[in-house]
Amino acid sequence: MAIITLTTDYGNKDYSVSSLKAKLISEIDDINIVDITHDISPFNLAEAGYVLEGAFSEFPKGTIHILSVDSELTPENKHIAIMYDGSFFIGADNGVFSLIFRDIKPDQIVDINLHSNYNYDISADELFVKVASHVNRSGPLNVVGSEIDTIKEITNLRPVINKEMNQIIGSVIYIDNYGNVVTNITEKLFKEISKTRPFTINARNVKFSKIHKNYSDAIDFNLEKKDREEDGKKIALFNNLGYLQLSVYRSNPQTVGSASTLFGLNYRDAVSVYF
Predict the structure, then answer these.
(1) How many other CB atoms are there within 10 angstroms of residue 246's CB atom?
(2) From 2.120.10.30, 3.40.50.10610, 2.40.30.90, 2.30.130.10, which CATH number describes the 158-274 domain?
(3) Which of 126, 153, 186, 214 stands the most exposed, by the fewest C-beta atoms within 10 Å?
(4) Pick from 174, 93, 170, 167: which is nearest to 127 by CA?
(5) With a cut of 70, which residues of the chain have pLDDT below it?
């Protein structure tokens, strides 16, 4: 059975998701469609890359991942298919895949060239379904496209290191369901620059001088519950994808607030680390 995942910015109000699934069901007989998310903010490539990066490695080899965010074909926005470690990725070469494969090299990349077969009168979703069907039949990628060596990169979402090597200038790339603020500063980069030096994380007027291993690491369970600093405590940690994350213990954006609302942080806001 084919496993095909969908990551889009279509939302669930309109018919777009159902239409895409109908195309897949019509094209592939035995199929298991998994919705990773359809709630990516419109055209937000950073969100899309972050979410798919976090999910794809949990799926078995052979899974086909369709990523449709800002996918309309233009001379500057071509369509590509990627093979990496036995899994396949189909989407637009708009820079989103450079966020997923920032430290790893795909095994194969092709610039999809099937559009001319349909006189260029084919939507991105229709094309992605055709390619997914071909891949599901064990068809080689170089049949649906020409091999290329590189993918488009989004360089303005990478953190910057000052020339004195004592500051990392990062930014917010994602805010999750709990209002946690995820930055583009990775644990690997942090360790390379810090060299165990003391540090201060600045995010607007909020400062952190310690990075916790996890949420509970920030709580002193030796104290009586009534004496602990728990709800609302600010926490910095590296999340399970290795990104620096700013959080509030037991946050809830709908009630007590969250890191995003309490710290006043939104997408692309600056977060810096000083050593």
Answers:
(1) 24
(2) 2.40.30.90
(3) 214
(4) 93
(5) 220, 225-232
